[in-house]
Amino acid sequence: MVLMHVRAGVVGDDADWNENIEGVEIGSDVSLILEYESRTGAGPRLHRHPYSETFLIRRGRALFTVADERIEAVGGQILVVPALTPHKFEVIGPNPFVSTNIHANPTFVTEWLE
Asked: pTM of the prediction?
C-alpha cells in the first residue's frame, strides 16, 4: 500500500512551504522538514540528533555550522550531517532559502544545545 501526504491548499510551487512531517505518521522510516525562508539570518539554533540529517538545498544560500566547520551551502548542493554532530544554519540573503531536510528516523529527536 502506498501512503501519500497531501499538502493542504497546494498552489503548485514551494513558496512559503514550511512543514514538519514525521515519517511514523505516513508509514515512512524517515522524517522531513520542508523549509522555505526569506529572512536573512533565520535558522535553527545549535542542536544535534542521534541519527544523520541530510540537507537537500534547492535554492538560496545558508551558512552552516557543523561541529567546528563553517560551510556556505548553495542551491544544488547536498550536505550530510552525521549523527550526534552539533549543527545549525543561518540564511544568507538576498534570495529565499529552500531546502528539504531528511531526518534518518521516523520521529524527530532533537537535543537543543543553545
From this structure: 0.88
